[in-house]
Amino acid sequence: MKQDKIGGLVSIAIGAASLAETAILYPYRLNSISGDFVMPGVVGVLLVVLGLLLVFVVKTPPYEIERADRRARLQMLGTVVILFAYWYAISELGYVIGTLLASLGLFKVVSGYGWIRATVYAGIVTLVLYVVLIQLLNIALPTGIFNV
Amino acid sequence: MRSKKFYSSLAVGALTVLTLAGCSGVATTSSSTNAAPAYPTRPIQLVVPFAPGGGTDLVSRAAAAYLGQKWGKTINVVNKPGAGGATGTEAALTAAPDGYTVLADNGSSTEALLSGANKPPFTLKDLNLVGTVVNQPFVFLVKSGSQFKTMQDLNAWVKANPGQLTFGSTGLSSVQTYTVIQWLQAIGVDYSKVHLVPNNGASDLLPQIAGGHVVLGVQDVTGAATLVKAGQLTPLAVTSTTPSPLFPNVPTLAQSGVNGVVSSFWSGIALPSGAPKSVAEKWGSAMDSMLKDPAFLAKLETLNAQGKYLNTTEFTALVNNNLTTYTQLVKQYNLGQ
Amino acid sequence: MNSLGMLLGGFANALTPANLLMALIGVLIGSLAGMIPGIGPTPAIAILMPFTTALGPVQGIIMLAGIYYGAVYGGSTTAILLGIPAELQAVPVTLDGYPLAKQGRGGPALGIAAISSFVAGLLGVLGLIFFAPLLADQALKFGPPEYFALMILTLTVIVNLSGASVTKGLVMGMAGYLVSMVGVGPSSGHARFTFGLAPMSAGIEIVSVIIGLFAISEVIVGMSSRTPVTAAEKIGSVYPSRADLKLTAPTMVRSGLIGFFLGLLPGASPAVSAFLSYDVEKRISKNPGLFGKGALQGVAAPEAAGNATASSGFIPLFTLGIPSSPPLAILLAGLTIYGLQPGPNLFNQSGSFVWAVIASMFIGNVMLVVLHLPLVGIWVKLTQIPLRVLKPLVLILCVVGVYTVRNSMFDVLVALVFGVIGYFLRKYHWPLVPFILCFMLGPLTELSFVQSMSISNGSLSIFFTSPIALVILILAVALFGVSVFLMRRSRKRALSLETNRPDLPTSIHTN
């Protein structure tokens, strides 16, 4: 299929990157055929060869590509954005507050609950996680600027 | 309808406030800055820059349990492995220097790492080396039942067949490599003729020796103890100036005619150099008495570790001394990255 | 048969109501921990060990054993019911377990998983009792060249698990190798593929990749799917039927044996055994097309093999003090704290205590089945929790689970990135299994190669002079050839079927 040819191009690209790294590592070898450059070299060559095969030679079996509707796409995008925001929030605001905000967002975007229900559920989830992880199991989680 | 919404909002608000209030109860910082404030007033994080289960990790956990009990506040061991110890060390150094993030380090993650890196992620000045918990020698190990019964046997064989010597080490700039290099220098063998077989640590290396795949291993006595006691490996010599209590019958390198090898393996505690001096002193004196406590020493014995407390001055001197030796070796044999 | 007598004595020591309760609690906590994506046996034991040290020696070890077995099994529960493998060795279990759950047969799948684990654990303990010292010594014969050959053998599994296009599978495999190299080179210590970023030099944690590729992307993909994902309307019988048991019994024994022997090797991982045995079962099955769509053997094989490896890992642990895997290292730490000194004299010196420990392991294993078979009904109800509640919960748990592995927010970021990548990979039908397989094998493959080269002073002949390595390599080549041949043949058959009977669906067009 045509899309797979694009995959082939990507394969060639990362293969080339691997070969570049091989060249960088060659001076640090242990002996002529052994060292940290060997695996990047082998993998790089194979990736380039396989990529070329995909682009020019091999006809991969066809498959159906699912096209999501607009609502689903927004949902997915929203989820991804919230997750990355969650990651950032944990470092800056601490795990507890981050989880509260993120679960609120997720319950709203993914589950489609109204603001109130989402907040309540988020509060419950955060509370349970706090009790189990931080109090019971004593796992050290980031605490952020509010020291929570 | 409206009152329902009102009450639910109230409930939500109350819940949120309750949650936050409960959380903040955990973290009360002592903000006074006068001499010797109360410490610790909340749990301490002890960062171990290695994976759980290793020698330094186990010793640190034992110390954390002991001191935590003594001070009445938990000391949480947090493993942050990676990059030979650099990841965890950096994490500990970039945390707030309030004395509540402490680093458990060892020779590999400190002077060995610094000696080999051409762009060191930190410098010795960033560390306040508080004290050691264990300090033990390395031991030269070969397969039991091999042709080497004494260190002299090994020396003679290596002098005659340098190209056949394979030894295991965790890397080019590891203490194991340095020990072997110094040994070869002392007996007059060219290091470039021997073969370094890289590995990921004791559990990789020791079966390789026991199985006869690698000739020599240089391991700290703690890591070696199990297999030696199991009869799979024979210890030939230790690198300390006096025989190790774990292997009382094994001669030292000096006794076997090899002089000038500087090598030891320590595990200890360090604080970021910006941490309050009172905290460092408290740790120091607590560790001093900890290593005089028979209960703790007995615990160390079950871990096959040799406890030894060096105070901050002695500790810093040891590390600096090692660093000088190692840096010189790196330059001489081009081991750096 | 003195060993047997000692074992019975050990049971006498271990079988008290209090101890049984400890085992039960251990398995329960371990299972719950194991179900959280990212928390496998290692973190579970590390986190929970402080609690067990408060108990006495025998009780503490029974609890640790329970936690260990529970955590290993817990990963399978979410793998089957939600399609989310909580750890690497649960990945092959997902391949058939999840389709089974979607067909309403999650109960039997879970039951078979539990029973397979038990059978394998039994084999492990029996092996420990009767063959321990002998086997441990033989295992030492495996050095770097032999490990390298073994890695090459495991590579051939890719062909079978690539789905429709072997080329795409190989690309994914190579990509997996590539990502596994990020960090520091094994021999030079020089940074590799780090782009100058400090966190990259610690390498990419495999759990982050698994969670991202399999868990997070699964949730995202679920949102885009037009067909509503129905939790099965009718669960049917919650327990495996007699026919199910008969079908999977040979698989359990075969995979158990494979896992057992692989587990003797220092450094063996249950995940490798799980993948290999899955592949073996698929090859020798009369109905290979069923694998990947809901073959019970596809659940039994990795479960049995994985648990057998986990159990037989106790053999080098006890006789040599060498832990084959991180959870065993921590277990060893736990045991040494109780005064256990591994070695061939172990059984002579510590005698009754050791047998009590072995009995405890066995009890933990039994407790696993006892606990989970009745609970299968409850776990299955989990799938009936409305997905809209489950999805955010799973995502939140993934994040914390990944964090706890190395206490690293970077790992969480990696998981998220792979979650997005995984979505696109799934959309365009690029197989994930070869990627994760090679990612897992990469470090050991490369290290074994470099080590072998160092030992042989740069000569490739070392792989051919060692009898064990040579045999394994020949086997690998043979298997590869056979796989490719079989694939071509089944594809030809399906194509001819297609032209003659266009009404029948052909399996080659599915991933």
Termini gap of chain B: 71 Å
Query: Could you name the CATH homologous superfamily of the largest domain in chain B?
Result: Bordetella uptake gene, domain 1
Residue-averaged pLDDT of chain A, rounded? 85
Q: How far apart are the first and last residues' alpha carbons of chain A, in Å?
A: 52 Å
Q: What proportion strand of chain A?
A: under 5%
**Structure classification of chain A:** mainly alpha
Oligomer: heterotrimer
Q: Helix-strand pattern of chain A, N to C?
A: HHHHH
Quantity of strands of chain B, as a count:
10
- If classified by CATH, what would the architecture of the largest domain in chain B be? 3-Layer(aba) Sandwich
Which of globular, elongated, flat, extended, rod-shaped describes the shape of chain B? Answer: globular
Helix segment count of chain B? 11
**Cα-based radius of gyration of chain A, to the nearest Å:** 24 Å
Total strand segments of chain A: 0
Shape of chain A: flat
Sheet with most strands of chain B:
5 strands, mixed
